Amino acid sequence: MVKRVVDGSRVRAATPAPAAPRGCTNLKLKQASRLVARHYEPQLAAAGLRQTQYSLLSAVVKLGPLRLGELAAALRLDASTLSRNLQPLLDRGLAEVQADDHDARGRIVQATAAGRDLREAAQKAWKRAQLALNDKLGAARVAALHALLDECMAVLAEAETDHE
Prior knowledge:
disordered N terminus, single chain, alpha+beta, 164 residues
């Protein structure tokens, strides 16, 4: 693969996609996810959050207050994973879970004032990490990646509902 220089850093030139998938898609996605997480983690750690905590807290701030099931669905998490990831935010007083006034079985999650304040501070760290990643990969490549991932998630979500 030919290398070219973009903005002072060496990057691999894009190559045409192979005619057929090669390797395990799950493995490739997990490897890419780990590399991206390692890029964000130091910035968010300086703000006092792990990447998963920042993502969850951001969702609670933006979407909340909402039912736990609705949050899990929005984040495409199962209930046990949501519960496990939410616990550190609850322990730190960044979020709270209360009974749903309209459904005795339901529980509502929302960010506390401390959670909203920390999310605002951490958002600056996230923005620095996001812009640095855009610089490394190129904004057009990141936009194309987002579009492709959104398309793939929509296809997979539709396939899941077809099988229910």
